[in-house]
Amino acid sequence: MTAIILDQIAGKLPLWVEDSRKCSSEGRVASYIPELSKAPTEALGIHLLDGSGRSASAGDCGLSFTMQSISKVFTLILALIENGEEAVFHKVGMEPTGDNFNSMLKLELVRPGIPFNPLINAGAIAISSLIGGRNAEEKSARTLQFFRSLAGNDSLECDEDVRRSESETANLNRSMAYLLKDNGVLEGDVEEVLAVYFHHCSISVTCADLARMALVLAFDGVDPIKGERLIPRRYVQIAKTFMTTCGMYNASGEFAIQVGLPAKSGVSGGILTLVPGQYGIGVVGPALNAKGNSIAGVQLLETMSRELDLSMF
Ligand code: DON
Fold this sequence. Notes:
single chain, 313 residues, alpha+beta, Beta-lactamase, 2 domains, 13 helices, globular, binds 6-diazenyl-5-OXO-L-norleucine
């Protein structure tokens, strides 16, 4: 991995974006949450932020989108802060699954019936149940506040249209949550847990917000711009390991080979990634490939990693 100098790439970034954007016509915007199908198929944007607050961006980086599965990295960290490792990994495992992100297959097949990891839906729903608060409103407010502090943006909000759309069509997540309850993984009211989950998946961000959140991970839990520790180093290590092994779902192995950076994708087309000790990066490209990752976003990160020698491996 080499140090990347923002001035050197600022001129190339728009060219890489326009080149990668071409493949978005081969992807499809997620439609199983109806509200997400309104996203612009051809959009592609990126924002990079370094530890001194300097940034470079290109393409449709002003586009707002919901965090979806990217939020799972940060609810995991919040649950670790509030409960510690032992309690969290009593409820979820640490292994990639080889199954789809919304699969519940192994919850029945593999004893003790805890989700394989915190980044698949079943695992993230279990993590949502560990967030502190007396009810779904308090837990959601706590999560939003945590995300705002990491993004350095007090105006982050939940997109209510997406949250409602997801809740109304979440038959699979709902059945998974009830199975988790039966397996003894979820405590409390299942609908309250799901409400917390739908809320954090629907928090609306831009590429700049993702880049700032990723920057905190790139600097092992310290926000280098404010000089403030926001997350214990150990929990960042855990989160980055999951991002590397499971962050891009069943394409995590290929992404590790082609890009070589910890990353997390979401079905709205966002990707949060980072260059350790150097950059936080936010990408959006709503058209997804067959594995559920942004098709143009992955292409753009592959190009950047190759051209700039970014791989950690
Ligand atoms: O539960 C869901 O289906 C969505 N809220 C999140 C899924 C997701 O982002 C999967 N990512 N690639």
